[in-house]
Amino acid sequence: MVEGIPGMTMLFVSSTCKGEPMLRVVKELGFYVLLLTEDKLRHDPFPWDVIDEAFFTPNLAHYKDVIHTVAYLCRGRSIDLIIPLDEFEVELVGMLREHLRLPGMGVSAVRHFRDKLTMRDLAHAAGIRVPDYAGIKNYDRLREYLATVPPPYVLKPRMEASAMGIQKIHDSEQLWRALDHLGDLQSYYLLERFIPGAVYHADSIVVDGRVIFVSVQQYGAPPLQIYQGGGIFMSRVLPPGDQAAQAIQTMNQQIVHTLGMVNGVTHTEFITAQDGGDLYFLESAARVGGANISDLIEHATGINLWREWGRLEVARLRGEPYTLPEVHAGSAGLLMTLARQEHPDLSAYADPEVRHIPLKEYHAGLIVAAADPARVDALLNDYARRFAEDFATRLDPMGTQRTGITG
Hints:
By secondary structure, this protein is α+β, with helices and mostly antiparallel strands. Helices cover 33% and strands 24% of the residues. The chain has 3 domains: 9-111, Rossmann fold; 132-193, Dna Ligase, domain 1 (2-Layer Sandwich), CATH 3.30.1490; 197-390, ATP-grasp fold, B domain (D-amino Acid Aminotransferase, Chain A, domain 1).
């Protein structure tokens, strides 16, 4: 250990600037805080005042280089835990943990929350309802699937986050042309029956395999629709007594058990089919939800998932019990959109229920919070209309797919 470093050391890895509450609480609890990020983020607003040492690499996607870098850092530092702050580093950190023999999920366990095909196989085997799907492996089996499952379909990358990279497929000919285009990459995809309906997400804290906190939200429009066509991203917290929320809470605990989450946080998506109302599991991630979902949940419940994830990891390392803070029963909703303006002016949105949130350039967004769910719904409906007029654009002015408007 480097001389002068007290207590234990936690390394955070991320290709995106996020997770400030987690870094701060870990520092407050006496840890030495390391950050590994990419060169392009040197000037991003990380909480530099609580980061003891920061290290930069050209590209975190170059796994072997990153493993060499972290192994080198370990020569002079006793790193006790490594945490990914973003979805795209979850698998990398699993590799680092296994290579350095550190606690936490390794590569195989991580794939349960990264690989959409793996999580569907596990859920289906456990009797949890999932949309009809097929891996892109054997063409004869794929033809059988196409003959028995009616279109439309969605062709999904197995390892991307949320709606990223998904293509809607309307017939078999379109699928074969898409697979031709993918070439050797096609085995990294799966095909799934497209189910129109209402999409939900459940965000959880898990301790010893049990969900001790969960907040269920409903998207205003499916993330796939927003990601591919633009518009207003909207999500609202459902009251605990809501019928859909209760069914989702039950399935969410089943998913946590089936995928093997023991301690940590999860962000899990579900859909209620428009035709028949059946509830389906879509996917789960071992991370805090993106698109300011953690801020939404905090304004409704008082629970900051980043902060509590940090407290949980510290308690586990120290062999101490984790205690969840008091949960409030409030209501809140979130709106976000890609904006035509680099720095949108939100001063006209001045109702007392408005809570402002930090946003990237060319994004507009806010949270509304109130005790009355009806008031939240009324504001969301009004603001969504106004956002469409004042800010919304169908195109990403920054020319990037990683806009932050994904769950």
